[in-house]
Amino acid sequence: MGSLSATHWIIIALLFLVLFGAKRLPDAARGLGRSLRIFKSEMNEMHADGDKDKNAPSGTQDKAAPELPAAQPSVDPVAQAKSDLNKA
Predict the structure, then answer these.
(1) Signed CA dihedral, 27, 29, 32, 33: sign only
(2) Rounded to an integer, what distance in angstroms lies between the CA atom of residue 53 and that of residue 46?
(3) b/e 14-34 (16+ beta carbons within 10 angstroms → b)
(4) What is the model's pLDDT at position 20?
(5) Whole-angstrom Cα distance, residue 60 to residue 53?
(6) Assuming Cys at both sites, which of 4, 56, 65, 78 could form a disulfide with 8, CB separation 3.0 to 4.6 Å?
C-alpha cells in the first residue's frame, strides 16, 4: 500500500505536465540540475577545507573569529520620515 505502482507514476507525471506545461518542465529540470551541481561542488569544497584544518599545525586552529560589528537598531522608515518633516 505504501509503494507507488507504474500507473501512479504516470498519473503524477501527467499532473505535472498539465500544471506546469511542457515548456516549463525542461527548464525547471535544467535549473534543478544546475543547483545540485553547485551544491555538490560547495559541499566538496567544504570537506576539502575541513581536511586542510585537520592537517594544519595545532597553533593555527586556535585563532579567534573576527568580531562582527554590533547590530544597529532598526528604524521605522515611516516614523523617520515623519520625524524629518516635523523638524523642517
Answers:
(1) negative
(2) 11
(3) eeeeeeeeeeeeeeeeeeeee
(4) 82
(5) 9
(6) 4
C-alpha cell at 41: 561542488
Compute the distance between CA of residue 82 and CA of residue 28 in angstroms, rounded to an integer: 46
Do residues 84 and 76 lie in contact, with contact meaning Cβ atoms separated by under 8 Å?
Answer: no
Closest CA to 42 of 50, 54, 32, 31: 50
Give the pTM: 0.42
**How far apart (Å, rounded) are the C-alpha atoms in residues 21 and 10?**
15
pLDDT at 24: 85
